[in-house]
TrEMBL record:
It holds the Pfam family PALP. Its EC number is 4.2.3.1. Its cofactor is pyridoxal 5'-phosphate. It is an enzyme of class 4 (lyase). The modification N6-(pyridoxal phosphate)lysine is found at K106. GO terms for biological process: isoleucine biosynthetic process; L-serine catabolic process; L-threonine catabolic process; threonine biosynthetic process. The gene is thrC. Belongs to the threonine synthase family. This is Threonine synthase. Residues 72-376 form the Tryptophan synthase beta chain-like PALP domain. One of its GO terms (molecular function) is threonine deaminase activity. Keywords: Lyase, Pyridoxal phosphate. NCBIfam families: thrC.
């Protein structure tokens, strides 16, 4: 199978490096991205739509194993039942990114990272994660016969910790915000023979897996790009990865467009939204994140350049950055379950909350195609409120049941 991968390039200074296991530009410390030979690709294929999932030719830095679906999961794109009306469009869609092996969007980037670890000859991988990346790394490391070390914030939901543990990872909780786990994992990968597949922008290969979401959306929408894509963001690699996938599509087919990217954060941890609203060029870290949406509660302490990369991507797409309160997020989480039949993790609901709120003052056109990325399954955490008192218990007695049903 052909592979069009060319090199690593620094997004700051443009320095080109070979495709090796490094985490930042050796000249300036900037974020690295993978480059491809698009000319050659274009010659060989007409559009991503034409080539996409059917023959799986590669604009990824790994060889695709035809026997495994990863990182092409073909997650469903389903139309909203009622929430679309709240937003003002008839074309609101949910991309069910929790419909993967481990129940979250992290499977795509992690699959690529684990394959690179194998290719580079590592036996051991490490990840700092708020939970979803932890489970994904543990699962795919196991499948590839690698050892995995998983660092999670001490406040990570028990279900996520158990999941990573069940796959056989060495799971360690780190006190304090996510940035602490990030920085510890970084130190270990500098000093020991352990490959770091933390899926911020640290590992330059993992974000390539996120591009596949864009390929699939183009396929889902019969060759078209949506008008807007809404993504909950911590550091924001998912948003940037999806943007990159659409951007590639325009390089290959100039008639195609790039959607406006909408990044969503919680008010309790909103460094990118702040920079966007204040018109700043750079993101300032949030030292004390405080939100129930743990998946996007990344204060970016020590790596705020990642947030700046996402900020610039939102601007490049002529998109927006929105923030919502924890209360609004919980309301949206309930709404998704009770009106759409979608039981998602709290961070996923932030996108829906933000869209509904934004549409009140800036209604979307009724024909706008909007895709909300639902990033994680609700079963990965508790519901968020105690329902014990609301769910009755009865004896094995039909009269007791009938009495309750009358209420
Ligand atoms: Zn550089």
């Amino acid at each position: 199978m052909k592979n069009y991968t060319r090199s690593l390039r620094c997004i700051n200074c443009g320095k080109i490096s070979s495709l090796k296991p490094i985490y930042s530009c050796e000249m300036c410390g900037g974020v690295l991205e993978v480059t491809y030979d698009y000319k050659k690709f274009k010659k060989d294929h007409e559009t991503i739509y034409n080539i996409s999932l059917a023959n799986k030719s590669s604009l990824l830095p790994i060889d695709i194993n035809e026997e495994e679906p990863f990182p092409y999961f073909n997650t469903p794109l389903i139309k909203a039942k009622g929430i679309g009306l709240d937003v003002g469009t008839n074309n609101l869609y949910f991309k069910l990114e929790f419909n993967t092996l481990t129940g979250s969007f992290k499977d795509r980037p992690v699959y690529v990272g684990i394959k690179k670890a194998k290719e580079f000859g590592y036996q051991k991988v490490i990840v700092a994660s708020s939970g979803n990346g932890a489970s994904a790394v543990a699962a795919y490391a196991t499948r590839e016969g690698l050892e995995s070390i998983v660092l999670v914030p001490a406040t990570t939901p028990a279900a996520k910790v158990s999941q990573a543990y069940a796959y056989g990872a060495k799971v360690i909780k780190v006190e304090g915000p996510y940035s602490n786990a990030f920085n510890l994992a970084w130190q270990i990968s500098q000093e020991e023979d352990v490959y770091n597949i933390t899926t911020t922008f640290l590992n330059p290969y993992t974000i390539e897996g996120d591009k596949v979401v864009a390929y699939e959306l183009i396929q889902n929408l019969k060759g078209n790009s949506p008008d807007y894509v809404v993504v909950p963001i911590g550091a924001g690699p998912l948003l940037v990865g999806i943007y990159n996938g659409f951007y590639e599509n325009t390089l290959i087919n100039e008639k195609q467009k790039i959607p406006h990217m909408i990044g969503v954060q919680s008010m309790g941890c909103n460094p990118i939204v702040k920079a966007f609203n204040e018109g700043k060029q750079h993101v300032t870290p949030e030292k004390s994140p405080d939100t129930i949406a743990g998946g996007i509660g990344d204060g970016l302490v020590g790596y705020s350049q990642d947030g700046t990369y996402t900020l610039n991507t939102i601007k490049d797409s002529e998109g927006i950055a929105l923030e919502v309160s924890d209360k609004e997020i919980m309301h949206a989480k309930n709404l998704l379950a009770s009106r759409e039949g979608l039981y998602v993790e709290t961070s996923s609901a932030a996108s829906v909350a933000a869209l509904i709120k934004h549409a009140k003052t800036h209604p979307f056109s009724s024909t706008s195609n909007i895709v909300i990325i639902l990033t994680g399954h609700g079963l990965k955490e508790s519901f968020g409120k105690n329902i014990e008192e609301e769910v009755p218990v009865i004896s094995n007695n039909v009269e007791a049941l009938k009495l309750l049903l009358k209420k």
